[in-house]
Amino acid sequence: MTRRKLYRDNRAIEGLPIRLVIALVVGVASLAVMMNVISGLNTFGTTELDTKPEPEIIEEETTEVNVTVLDPDGQTISNATVIAKSDTATLKSTTYAKTGPDGVATLEIDPQLRPNQREGTVELAIRPPAGEYVDEQENNDILVLRP
Q1: What is the structure's pLDDT at 3?
Q2: Which residues fall in a coiled-coil region (predicted)?
Q3: In the prediction, which pLDDT does 26 show?
């Protein structure tokens, strides 16, 4: 009877690479699910805010725009900061204003369009007051038209 030595036995190694690949795939999928659950936890109890500019459509000149900050129920939000930034229409500088008790912020903007550009947008962002509010989704923009 011939005794086999363990260090010469290669049979256990044959299935090892595929088992490692399967374990890696299952582990990565599980990690992705756990990270999705964890990142979703901080959104419980938060309210997404949106902007309502008035007027929504302006011409290429210095204009005063009243921006109302609203929650999904249409209630106004005070003490939020509204920020106007260049998008496809250019602003000389970023402009911001804080909403009053009525939820309205007044911004004075001077949008410019590039040559041969007939329209563009000014992007609006919200810095919510501390608490349960967030601004993670895109807000309504201001449309700028060439006169």
Answers
A1: 61
A2: none
A3: 92
Cα 87-131-75 angle, rounded to 5 deg: 70
| pLDDT mean for each 10 residues of the chain (147 residues) | 60 67 89 76 66 86 86 84 88 89 90 88 86 78 86
How is domain 47-145 classified at the CATH fold level?
Answer: Immunoglobulin-like (2.60.40)
Contacts 24+ apart (CB under 8 A), 72-80: 72/47, 72/48, 75/103, 76/102, 76/103, 76/104, 77/49, 77/103, 77/128, 77/129, 77/133, 78/102, 78/103, 78/129, 79/129, 80/49, 80/105, 80/126, 80/127, 80/128, 80/129, 80/133
Q: What residue segments make up the domains of the chain, in order of their start?
A: 6-41, 47-145
Q: Which of 77, 86, 7, 11 is nearest to 47 (CA)?
A: 77
Instruction: Return the SS3 of 39.
Output: helix
Contacts of 71 (CB under 8 A, 6+ apart): 47, 48, 49, 50, 77, 133
Task: Sort 135 into a burial class: Cβ within 10 Å, 0-12 / 13-18 / 19+.
Answer: buried
